[in-house]
Amino acid sequence: MTTGTPARATRARRGHRVATWLCAWSKTGAACCVALALTLTAMPFAHAAHAIAQFGEPKYPPDFKHFDYVNPDAPKGGTLVLANPDRLTSFDKFNPFTMRGNAAPGLGLLFESLTTGSMDEVASAYGLLADDIRIAPDGMSVTFHLNPRARFSNGDAVTAADVKFSLDTLKSPQASPPVQAAYAEITRAVVVDPATIRFEFRNRSRELPLIAGGMPVFSHKWGLRADGTRIPFDQLAFEEPIGSGPYVIERYSTGRTITYKLDPRYWGGDLPVRVGTNNFERITYKLYSDDVARLEAFKAGEYDVLVEYIARNWVRRDVGKRFDSAELIKREFPHHNGTGMQGFVMNQRKPLFQDVRVRAAFDLALDFQWLNRMLFYGQYRRLDSWFANTDMQARGLPSPGELALLDPWRDELDPVVFGPLPLQPSTDPPGSLRANLLKARELLGEAGWTYRDGALRNAQGQPFVFEVLDDTSSSASWASVMAQYTQALGRLGIRVNYRAVDFALYQKRLDAFDFDMTTIRFPDSQVPGTELIDRFGSKAAGEPGSGNSIGLKSPAVDAILKALTQAQTLPQLLDATHALDRVLMHGYYVVPQWYNATHRVAFRNTLAYPATLPRYYGAIDWIITTWWFKPQPGTTP
């Protein structure tokens, strides 16, 4: 789920797009299935019920009729038209699970999983394809029974063999590294009978039953030719997926538009988890070449909903006669999402950024207070944690539980990790950018960089020159931010080469880790888990296309990640996330940017939404799932 990323739209990086989708799917979107009501302290695993909660009890009882944040009487019909949900400007495949190419937006509408989550709980989920789940007493496996009504879009029943095929495929080298990493702790799937599947785990973890339940399921016939041969999974392009979701692809054109139609044979519409959802007859995506074209198209009436990530646009540009006449409406919807992390990422594979003092100096050079005042209309807060806006954020001094994780690595870790968290620099009086740059110059000098002959140079006389990589679709809206940052770095004698390239080349370079610095938004998660292994694990740092864009390789971080993913109680999970947050923040691997605790949405006045808002949600996911068109005069509701 997104968090209302401020000042610019979410940076689309394939690894992060897939990780975001899978994380949202397994934690809130289509997460898990049915059982395992666990308390906050360790308990035996054996349990079978209607819902699963990683910690605590599921909110909804066995006889619930629908989620609180839907309108069960919402009318069905109409075509919802949307624009690019991220930086994607074109697509060349319908397979979202592979590395090569760009997948069409909205493909999650085609796939379902054994379970689905609710948007008002952080880590609970309810039966979807599955109607029963049993957790082994030792917690090392989970068994799902399939709903006999479950059907794929081609009319075939969903079988345990299809579920096994899905897992085996997503764990194979033909899937992208983030997808493989998401299911790495599931050792195998065993077909017990045609309607029963068992997932076996590498370790005992409360998260793994949720991950297993949240895995997207597709038919083994996807990619099967008429003669019985199979198209390799990583070569699937415009072969339409065979999933069990509520929508099917109706048409697409030139890799720039795609329309999904509500499947008239969809099997699950009356399930409690589906009542009041999927209210649009059709959903169309139109992909625009850049932010300016996308905004002007919305104001011209070409699509129905704009989720605004740029503060200046929200205040100054999302205006005009259609807004004045109330044809277009602006609303800010609060949420309780974790913020994730958005920032200038410094690639640790590059020698320039391997000294923590250099990275800390770069943090000092960003004048957030000026940017917020002059460019962002005071709408944002500075990020000061990888888990901001959640209980997972570290605070104060390390607790005994955190120290138990950090102490074995004292020889590797900087001693400052065992003290207070670093404060983000401020230029509010009595502070100033000049004072921050003086501190930055001292740090650079300690790292061997001194100003002489008109530039910051190392002992060999080489100047400090690096490239900031961007994509052309966002470079216009980002120009003012880059101008301030580049000017401040220039005062230190650092030369910045700003390069904006088309999205395809940008994506290719990020997948190959061929960059010095770029802006990335790392996905948020209310309950962090195995997705962090792909983001921070040493192994992922050497895998092209992985989520470890930082290039972080740290045995201490690997050990903390192991403790995090194997946490059996909420206090254990908190200790691990706090310890990880301390190591990451003191490492200055990114220059943190900013966040907003609301979703800014502009939409046509013909659209309506439920009276009760969810708590943890992405704006577009919520709109697609629960909004509807108001019945118009002269029509039958």
User: How many individual β-strands?
Assistant: 27
| Low-confidence spans | 1-21, 23-47
- Read across the widest sheet, the strand sequence of neighbours is 21-20-22-16-23
Could you say how many structural domains there are in total? 2
What's the rounded overall pLDDT mean? 89
Known CATH architecture of the largest domain: 3-Layer(aba) Sandwich
Figure out the total of helices: 18
Radius of gyration: 24 Å
Largest sheet: 5 strands, mixed
Signal peptide: 1-48
Pfam families: SBP_bac_5
Protein name: ABC transporter substrate-binding protein
InterPro entries: Peptide/Ni-bd, SBP_5, SBP_5_dom
Short description, anyone?
This protein has 637 residues and is of the alpha+beta class. The protein has 18 helices and 27 strands. The protein folds into 2 domains: 31-303 and 598-629, D-Maltodextrin-Binding Protein, domain 2, CATH 3.40.190.10; 341-593, Dipeptide-binding Protein, Domain 3 (Dipeptide-binding Protein, domain 3, Roll), CATH 3.10.105.
Protein model, in words:
The structure is a single chain. The protein has 18 helices and 27 strands. With 637 residues, it is α+β, with helices and mostly antiparallel strands. The chain folds into two domains: 305 residues, Periplasmic binding protein-like II (D-Maltodextrin-Binding Protein, domain 2); 253 residues, Dipeptide-binding Protein, domain 3. The strands form nine sheets. It has a five-stranded mixed beta sheet with strand order 21-20-22-16-23. Strands 2-13-12-11 form a four-stranded mixed beta sheet, with no helix packed on it. The N terminus is likely disordered.
